[in-house]
Amino acid sequence: SWYQLNLALYYELENYSAAAQLLKKMIVLYADKKQYWEQLASTHQQLKQYKKAVSIKHLAYKKGFINKEKKILDLVNMFLYVNSPYKAATLLKQTIKSKKVKSSSKNWETLAHAWTMAKEFDQAIAALETASKLNDKGSLYQQLGQIHVEQEQWSKAIVALNKALAKGGLKNIGSTYLMLGMSYYENKNIKRAKNAFLKAGQY
């Protein structure tokens, strides 16, 4: 209780550096007190020490203190913010698999983004394919098609871009037809390439 009073006074004085040092002592003495881990992470955030904050949160997750979906996703986003995409991706993949986090289009899209940042392109493509299947609009298939085009995987690009156009709801229909035309051309299907380019010209 004396430590808690001391901590409250540090917060009142906005002396976050001293509060962080005190919380470290409190965690050593009372390692199973969930709120001290949360307070230490948020104190480091106040000090703009984001790498320290995410390390504390990750330790709290490993101790089982972070198990709600929103807080797990906050941790994933913090990893992305401090430029640790591989850790973000592995955490999100594990928690989707264990059903701690929903298998939603949005979460799979975040996973694809994390794998892309980590330059794990095969994993990014697999995650984006799952996200696309769960999404009502074609924009994710469009992104998937673009990745295939960039990697010169023309047959896969054709499949993804056609699915994007079939689902609809695209903002850049013209550019989608343009990529489709390029993919057909590189795949030696000149007739379909020409049709796709003519449709692109309408936009």
How would you describe the overall organization of this protein?
- The protein is an all-alpha fold.
- The chain contains twelve helices and no strands.
- The chain has helices at residues 2-12, 16-29, 34-46, 50-62, 69-81, 85-97, 105-117, 121-134, 139-150, 154-167, 173-186, 190-201.
- Helix 9 packs antiparallel against helix 10 and helix 10 (154-167) packs antiparallel against helix 11 (173-186).
- The chain is elongated and about 80 Å long.
- The model has no long low-confidence stretch (mean pLDDT 94).
Write the layout of secondary structure elements.
Layout: H1 2-12, H2 16-29, H3 34-46, H4 50-62, H5 69-81, H6 85-97, H7 105-117, H8 121-134, H9 139-150, H10 154-167, H11 173-186, H12 190-201
Helix pairs in contact: 1-2, 2-3, 3-4, 4-5, 5-6, 6-7, 7-8, 8-9, 9-10, 9-11, 10-11, 11-12
Unreliable stretches covering 5 or more consecutive residues: none
Mean pLDDT over all positions? 94
Radius of gyration, in Å, reads: 23 Å
Could you spell the SSE succession in H and E letters?
HHHHHHHHHHHH
Shape: elongated
Instruction: Describe the main β-sheet briefly.
Output: none
Number of strands: 0
Strand content: under 5%
Distance between the termini: 69 Å
Number of helices: 12
The helical percent reads over 70%
| Structural class based on helices, strands and sheet pairing | mainly alpha
